[in-house]
Amino acid sequence: MGLDADGAEQLARARGWKVVRSLPPGSIITMEYLSGRINFEVEDGAVTRCWLG
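^ thats the sequence. predicted structure below, dont judge the formating
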């Protein structure tokens, strides 16, 4: 957390994450779990939360 969104995405892909999803705070999303996906909540260009699936 605290990384800029672009840097966090590049780092995640370099570490093997196949799907990287960036979302604004409070986004409505499905609750399906997708193996190989990492989610970032991004506010003002910085990652404020991160979760898998």
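The mean pLDDT is 93.
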